[in-house]
Amino acid sequence: MNHNIDDVPVVVITGSSRGLGKSLAEHFLKQEFRVAGCSRGGSTIDNPHYYHDSLDISEENEVRSWVRKLKKTLGRVDVLICNAALVNSALLLATTPGNVMESFLKTNIAGVFYPVKEISKLMMVKGQGRIITISSTMVALHEEGTSIYSATKSAVTEMIKILAKELAPRGVTCNIIAPAMMWTESSEELSKGGDWQKRMLDIQTIPRILKMEEICNVADFFISPLSSVITGQVIYIGVVD
Fold it and tell me: Which one is catalytic: 50, 114, 149, 236?
């Protein structure tokens, strides 16, 4: 690792205590980045270059305080990966309770908007940065039972594409990774409902569960110095859009 710790790039990942977020955090730690993560609960990663905070990313004041702390303690943010999201519902729209719909809107949209809003300010001042949001192939597949979830992911896609135009003059790129089925606590919970896993795999172009390393590979591509002219793009993994 670089002798001066302040010169080591910082990757910020939301929802880093489990699932894909944790895998991404461990991936970048192995590459000798400093990683700052957050979740509603405590840290599940033991590494001297990992920094964890417990907060609700859908609450503006909590996110603002967190980003101020990151700026003070780490001095920089080079990459932001908005990973945290609710995915634990497979209900037809007519049977989706209003409180479930509202929780999806708050976590999946506000929970991206606030971190992106605050951290993009730091990146604009620096004149460079990478923003990545995690979406889903459900946006392309229009699968029954995902209306609210897919709607929130579609909203974030539009948000990030417009942001990509706004930040391009400041040297900041904004892109989206949309993975097909991966094995996480959420997918395991959904699979308890019957044939959900088989149905999801049947509609994928490549009908197998993704490896976390395959998703990390796309993140590596987006943050590469050679990707500085790639912005506003969505990469679907496992599915043809």
Answer: 149
SS3 for 136-181 is CCHHHHCCCCCHHHHHHHHHHHHHHHHHHHHHHHHCEEEEEEEECC
Rounded Cα gap, residues 108 and 82, in angstroms: 10
pLDDT tens per residue, range 122-140: 999 999 999 999 999 889 9
Least confident of 59-63, 142-146, 163-167: 142-146
pLDDT at 188 over 70: no
How far is 13 from 10, CA to CA, in rounded Å?
10
Instruction: Output phi, psi for 13, to 5 deg.
Output: -130, 125
Cα separation, 95 vs 99, in Å, equals: 12
| Cα 198–chain centre separation | 25
Q: Name the β-bridge partners of 51.
A: 36
Q: What percent of the chain has pLDDT over 70?
A: 93
pLDDT band for position 117 (cuts 50, 70, 90): very high
Most distant CA pair in the chain: distance in Å? 58
CA 95 vs CA 92, 104, 199: distances in Å: 5, 15, 20
* Residue 149 bears catalytic tag: yes
Residue of 89, 92, 53 lying closest to 73 (CA atoms): 53
Residue given tokens 């690792």 in the structure block: 1
Tokens representing residue 37 in the block: 């993560």
What integer pLDDT is reported at residue 4 of this predicted model? 82
**Cβ atoms 169, 229 nearer than 8 A:** no
